Amino acid sequence: MQRIKLFLIIFGSFTLSSLPGILIAQKNDSLPGLDSLPSQSLAEVVISANRYGSLQLKTPEAISVIDHKSIQKFQLRTAPEALLQTPGVFVQKTNHGGGSAFLRGLTGNQTLLLVDGIRLSNATMRYGPNQYFNTIDVFSIEKIEVLRGSGSVQYGSDAIGGTIQAFSHELLVAEKPTWESTLLTRIATHGMEQSLRGDVNYRNKKVAFRAGITARNFGDLVGGDTTGRQTPTGYREFDFDLKGKIFLSPSTDLTMAYQRVHQSDVPVYHKVVLENFAVNKMDPQKRELAYIRLQQKINAGILKSAVFTASTQHNEEGRELLKNGSSTLRNENDAVRSFSFSAEAFASGRNGWSANTGLEVYNDMVRSSRTDKDLSTDVAVLKRGLYPDGATMTSIAAFSMHTFELHNWNLTAGARLNTYINKVKDEAVGPTKLTPSALVGNLAILRKLNKKSNLFVSMNTGFRSPNIDDLGTLGIVDFRYETPNFDLQPEHSLQYQMGYKYQNHKLRGELYLYRNELYNLIVRNRMVGDSIEGYPVYQKKNVERAYIQGVETAWDLELNKSWMVSGAMTYTYGQNITRNEPIRRIPPLFGRLAVVYKLKDCWINLEWQSAAKQDRLAAGDKEDNRIPIGGTPGWNIFNINTNYEIGRFNIDLNLLNLFNQDYRFHGSGVNGYGRSASLSVMVTI
To answer: Measured between alpha carbons, how far is residue 199 from residues 182, 216, 489 in Å?
Structure first.
C-alpha cells in the first residue's frame, strides 16, 4: 500500500515538476508522428466535445481517445475492457459479460453512452454498474472517445459524470475501385476465449461499404493464485455490422449503417456463488441499431454544413433465474425500442466565431414481462415484469454551442433545453404522466500559453431526467427488492474544472483538477421493516446532495525512435453531504505505467497497473456482497504485450498478470485475469 502511494506521489510530482526541463532539453528534437507508437496524441481530432471535429489540444475538455490499432495490439477483449487503456477511467465488472466505466466517480445512468452520435443509454438504464457498453462489438470500433465531466449540453440527460462515445469505421473514397478483406482469429489459454472476425471493405469514387461478422466463445474466467476458475462466467457471442456511404455529390453524402450484437447464456457469477442461485444468467443480451445520416456542405454565408440523422434501435435483455432448492424457474424479458431524429447545422463567421445548433427527438417504448414456471407441474404463470409494460419516454431538445477564438484566447459557451414526457401504466396506481424538463449550460475559457500548451477553466451544469427504471422498477435488483415511485424530479450537477495540456514532438502531458456538486439525487431508500422474498425493500427518492472532486493526469514521453514511457494517475474523492458518508462505489487511487520498445516490424510493451486499497465505504458498500469486509484490497499486476508484422500478417501475443496475483476492481462481482496468455493473428487480403 505504501509503495503504491509512493509511486503515485512520485508519478504526479514528475508530471508537474519535470515538464519545463524536459521541454527545454528537447526543444529542437523531432521524431516520427506519435501514432508510430501506441500513444495518445493531443493533435488528434475529437468529435464528442462539440459534436464536430476539433483538435484535442485546443479543446477545453478532458477528453481521451483509444483507436482500433491499440484495441487490436493490446487484444482488448470487449468495449468496456478497452477503456482500461484510457486515462481517468475505472472499469467495474459485475460479471465477465459486463463492464461498467466510472467517469469521475459515477457510472450507470449517470454516465452517457453513445454510438456514432446516437444514444445507447435508454429509458431502462439503471443506477449503478451495468453491462450495456458490452453490447458494442469491439471489432467494429474505429475509436472510442471518453469525455470526462461533460456532455449534457451536447447530448442531454445522463452525462453527469461524462460521456463515452464509440465510433464505427469511417468510410472514404478511392480513385480506383478497391477491395480489401481481413480475417482475425484469437485464442486464450485455459479455454477463456476463441474469437473469429472477418471484414470486407470496398470503395470507389462514389460508393464505399464495410461489412463484418464476429463469432466468439468465452470460457470461464480464470483468476490468479487462490481464485482459480470462476464458474459460471463464460458465454457466447455472435455479431454482424454493415455500413455504407454514397457520395451523391462533392458536397453531399448519405451514410447507412446496421449493427447487431447477440450474446447468449451470460451468467451473473456472484449471484450463483453468494446468493444461493442455481441459475442466474442473461439470455439473450441483444442490441440492434440501424440509422441513416445525410451530410450536406452548404457554404452559404455563415451557414457551412448540416447533418440529419434518423435511427431505430432495439435493446433486449432476458434473464433466467432459479434458486437452489426451488422448483420455480423465473424468466424475465425487457425490451426497449428507440426511435430518434436529429438535425444540426454548423456555422462560422468572422472573428473566430463558430457554432453548432440543433434539434433532436428520442422516443423509447418499453416492453417488459415475467413468467414463473413450476418445474414440478410444468405450469407457467404470467406476471408483471421488472418495468411497467408499454411505458414510454420521449425526449425533445434544442441545443446551441458557440466558440469564439480571439488571438490567444478561446471562449466556449452553450445551452440546451430538454423536456421529457414519461408515460407509465401500472396496475397498482393506474396511468401516470410526468413531464420533467431541464435547462443546462456550459462555459469554458482557454488561454493559449504558446503553440504547444494551453490552460483552461470551465464550468458546466448537467442533469439526469428520471427514466422508466426510476419510475417503475418492481422486483429484485442486485441484492435488494425495488418498488416504484412516480413522483421524481431530475438530478442536477454543477462541475468546475481546470486543465493544462502540453504537446511537442516528444512529450504529451495533461493535468485536470475538478469538483462536481451533485444535488436532487435520486437514491434508493430502504423501507424500514419491509422484506420481500428475503430481500430488503427499497424505493427511489430525490433526497440527497453530494460532491465529487479529484485529480487526473496522463503523459507520454518518447525517449528516442525506439523507446517510449507513458503513464496515468487518477484520484477521486466523493462525499454524500446528506448522509455524511462517502459516496457509493468511489474508485480507489489507481494508475498505470508502461514502457514501450519499438523496432521496424515489432514492438514490446511492459505495463504496470496498480490500484490502492479502497476502505472508504458508504453504508451501501458495506451491504454489497461484492465488496469484501473492510474494503477492496489494493493490487499490482504486470502485463507484457507484443506485436509483430510480417507481410500481410499481424501477430499479437499478450501475457497477463505475470505474477498470478489475486485482484479485483473495486465493486466487481468477479476477480481479474490470472496468469494467462492470448494470441491474435490477423491477415489482410
So the answer is: 5, 15, 46
Q: Which helix (H) or strand (E) holds 8?
A: helix 2-17
- Residue 561, all three cell numbers: 525512435
637/658 Cα distance (integer angstroms): 7
Q: What is the mean pLDDT of the chain?
A: 91
Residues with Cβ within 8 Å of 166's Cβ and at least 6 positions away in sequence, in order, are 79, 114, 115, 116, 133, 136, 141, 143, 144
| Positions of E strands within 407-485 | 409-426, 430-434, 437-448, 453-464, 475-477, 480-483
Three-state DSSP at 23 gives: helix
Task: For residue 105, report the phi and psi dihedrals to the nearest 5 degrees.
Answer: 85, 0
Contact, 509 vs 40, CB < 8 A?
no
Which pLDDT value is given to residue 351? 82
Grid coordinates of 568: 496515468
Residue 527: per-residue pLDDT: 78
Determine the pLDDT at residue 426: 75
Res 538: pLDDT: 85
In the chain, the amino acid numbered 200 is: V
The grid coordinates of residue 316 equal 433486449
Continuous H helices in 527-661: 619-623
596 vs 289: CA distance, rounded Å: 38
Beta strands in 154-232 (DSSP E): 162-168, 178-188, 193-203, 207-218, 221-222, 229-230
The residue count for the chain: 685
| pLDDT value, residue 631 | 98
Instruction: Kindly report whether the peptide bond that precedes residue 87 is cis, defined as omega within 30 degrees of 0.
Output: no
Give the Å distances, CA to CA, from 314 to 33, 257, 390, 488, 634. 41, 14, 15, 26, 39
pLDDT confidence of residue 43: 65
The DSSP letter of residue 169 is P
What residues pair up with 538 in beta bridges, in sequence order?
482, 526
Name residues of the chain where pLDDT drops below 50: 1-39
The closest alpha carbon to 266, from 213, 330, 224, 221, belongs to 221
pLDDT at 103: 98
Give the amino acid at 413: A
Residue linked to cell 469511417: 170
Q: What is the DSSP string of 475-523?
A: EEETTEEEE--S----EEEEEEEEEEEEE-SSEEEEEEEEEEEEEEEEE
- Structure confidence at residue 472 (pLDDT): 78
Tell which residue, 351, 435, 360, has the closest CA to residue 400.
Answer: 360
**Side chain identity at residue 280, one-letter code:** N
Instruction: Report how far residue 356's alpha carbon sits from residue 307's, in angstroms, rounded to the nearest whole number.
Output: 11
d(CA 236, CA 284): 10
- Break the chain into its structural domains and give their ranges: 2-684
Pairing of strands 649-656, 635-646: antiparallel
CB atoms within 10 A of CB 325: 7
DSSP 206-267: SEEEEEEEEEEEE-PEE-STTT-EESS--EEEEEEEEEEEEEEETTEEEEEEEEEEEEE-EE
Q: How many CB atoms are located within 10 Å of the residue 364 CB?
A: 25
CA–CA dist 260, 241 (Å, integer) = 6
Cα-flanking dihedrals φ and ψ of residue 530, to 5°? -90, 145
Q: Residue 37, Cβ neighbours under 10 Å: how many?
A: 20
Structural fold of domain 2-684: Maltoporin; Chain A (2.40.170)
Cis amide linkage into residue 536, ω under 30° from 0: no
CB atoms within 10 A of CB 628: 12
Please say whether the beta carbons of 386 and 394 come within 8 A: no
